[in-house]
Amino acid sequence: MPRRIVVVGGGAAGMSAASAARRTDPEADITVLESGPFPSYGVCGLPYYLSGVVESAESLVAYPASEFRDRRRIDLRLEAPVESIDLAGGVVVETGGDRHRYDALVVALGAAPIVPPIPGADDPRVVVVRRLEDAIELRSRLDGVSSAAIVGAGYVGLEMAESLHARGIDVTVVDRLPRVMTTVDPVVADLVEAEVRRHCRLLLDAALESIEPAGSGGVAAPGLRLTCGEQTLDVDLAVLALGVRPSTALVPSLQALPNGALLVDERMRTSDPRVFAAGDCIAVHHRVLDGPAYVPLGPAANKTGRTAGTVAAGGDARFGGVVGTAVVKVFDLTVAHTGLTLEEARGRGMPAEATDVTAKSRAKYYPGAEPILVRLVHEPGGRLLGAQMAGRDGVAQRIDVIATALQARMGVGDLLGLDLAYAPPYSPVYDPLIQAAQAVRVKERA
Ligand SMILES: Cc1cc2nc3c(=O)[nH]c(=O)nc-3n(C[C@H](O)[C@H](O)[C@H](O)COP(=O)(O)OP(=O)(O)OC[C@H]3O[C@@H](n4cnc5c(N)ncnc54)[C@H](O)[C@@H]3O)c2cc1C
């Protein structure tokens, strides 16, 4: 009897799992149940599709369904939402009643945007950006939108602010906290805040409390009125970007973090021996913390999916974890981080310090040289814990150097000896990373 593998969720993690399972076991029966109309697509590209930088929605779809069905012989079922999972019986039940028995199950249900239980959040002009079908519908409506509120100043909210601003929409970003982007320390967030303010209105310390039709005060107007703390805001559209929650309600008995992210081992095995999990619905091993953490990002979704599918099909694969690396474009600024922030490290009781350096991205005489803020987070003995960077040039490749150093457990002293590439259009002769490591050394000698 061929092995029966069922994958629930056909996003990056689910389709990676199904494809890896096929490569591992050419004979297996593999079924993917996906609630939406598209298999795996570039969710990360949605803001750029909305802005128009990416012209067509189809270009975000990695492969057509026929590639999975015909070439990879995967029974890919679209618009097939899963209603329940009977872990004891080994059966997945689709809405509508179709039942799928499994020998191995891969849970790849992703994460769902957080929508606060406030009045008005269900208005059709209040949207979240998570699914391609919603983005297609939203883009078709944007010509009639002249003002928008983005609620949530995390990376998705800021990408959406840029995206709508690029369409000529008057954008206001709102956050309940006194700062933007809590994934970086305040000194870096301040640069991000300044960049956002160059293009949009920004309301901080302004928690969203209610949303109502703007005409409710007696004035006929087709928009929305948002009450955010003491302020009100009249807009045509509100985008909620308040973070995500792992979609694991269908498997409540599996071991999970308090937020619902499933706990897995390095082979993506859950607490049920027949069940594997991958992507935004799991907690990954964080190499710097040496424990599980919820870091829902694209590269890990693909890699954990591949691992889960390989192991579910009888092969061997492991996913060693993440160091928490991310990069985001906020208008003309690139912001990146890896490892722990100073706030996170100190919050965990680590004796962490931070050293900041602002250096040029290229030789100072070369056109296009821009300042980069580099913050290294480290312990007094030189243990490297993380880094953050912000600048208009040369940020993305430099964060990857620190990410590699963290994974290799290099210390700040090791950064000093790195043989990094140099030519005037790309770097000063002492790279900003080396300058930051030198600053740590000077500080420690003082
Ligand atoms: C706007 C935006 C921008 C992003 N940008 C970046 C970026 O620049 N870099 C980065 O690293 N990460 C980025 N991410 C995060 C990245 O997109 C996710 O980490 C990745 O998509 C997770 O893949 P996944 O397969 O786990 O989840 P998903 O892609 O969410 O796939 C889960 C699938 O499960 C399906 N599903 C859910 N419930 C059911 C059910 N009951 N039955 C059947 N199917 C179901 C869903 O329809 C979905 O297709 C971004 C996310 C967003 C929203």
Fourth-tier CATH superfamily name of the largest domain: FAD/NAD(P)-binding domain
Q: Which CATH-level-2 architecture of the largest domain?
A: 3-Layer(bba) Sandwich
Number of domains: 3
Task: Give the bound compounds.
Answer: flavin-adenine dinucleotide
The number of strands is 26
Can you tell me the overall shape? globular
- Major sheet characteristics: 5 strands, parallel
Helix proportion range: 25-40%
C-alpha-based Rg, rounded = 23 Å
Spatial strand arrangement across the major sheet = 3-2-1-7-19
What's the rounded overall pLDDT mean? Answer: 96
CATH C-level class of the largest domain is Alpha Beta
Low-confidence stretches: 216-220
CATH topology of the largest domain: FAD/NAD(P)-binding domain
Number of helix segments?
A: 11
Whole-Å distance between the termini? 70 Å
The class by helix and strand makeup works out as: alpha/beta
* Proportion of strand residues: 25-35%
Structural account:
The protein is α/β, with parallel strands linked by helices. It folds into 3 domains: 134 residues, FAD/NAD(P)-binding domain (3-Layer(bba) Sandwich); 115 residues, FAD/NAD(P)-binding domain, CATH 3.50.50; 109 residues, FAD/NAD(P)-binding domain, CATH 3.50.50.60. It is built from 11 helices and 26 strands. The strands form 7 sheets. It has a 5-stranded parallel sheet with strand order 3-2-1-7-19. Helix 1 packs parallel to helix 7. It is globular and about 70 Å long. 45% of the residues are buried. About 1% of the residues have low confidence. The structure holds flavin-adenine dinucleotide. Flavin-adenine dinucleotide binds next to helix 1, helix 2 and helix 7.
